[in-house]
Known about the structure:
The protein has helices spanning about 1-10, 25-30, 35-75, 85-110, 115-130, 135-160, 165-185.
Amino acid sequence: MEHFTEALTQRFHLNKLDSLPFSKTCTEKTGIRPSRIALALSALFIFHLLSIHGLKWLTAVIGFLYPAFITAKIIRTYSDETDEEGKFWLKYWMVYGLVYLTEVFFLPVLTIIPHYYALKAIFLIWLFHPETQGACLVYTKTVKAFLERYEPKIDERLAPIQRFDSQEFLKNTFKNLTANVVKSVVRA
């Protein structure tokens, strides 16, 4: 270990700190050379950056890539609508979408939580792990319960959008635009 830390201090030119005027005093008082203190502080800083930004990316990979791969395989080989594995992964994507939406709205608050991204990674693994299948539990307690209560109201609100006919919309828009132009020309 001594050889490794010495090689790192030389590689990053931290050993030059040991020749500064304050280094003898620092070494006498702490028993640690300034180059080693700088190396430890650099390692802590890098770990801090990784824990903030690196784990964010890692949780995205954990939460998205593996489940997306499994879902793609299921979709490709999906033959029975009652397939339990297929239902599980569809539930996972619903829950993951809720996690993502929650994070979009509350990220400034969530990142105050120490080690948020590490906790999120553990939660995502819990959601899709075959032993726990946490996505089924979360889906049943949140999404399913919400839909059972509000689905008719949501369908009622979405009905005009679902009936939307783009050709009819364009025809009416063009007709109204033409009428407005004609009125403007007549007034002028």
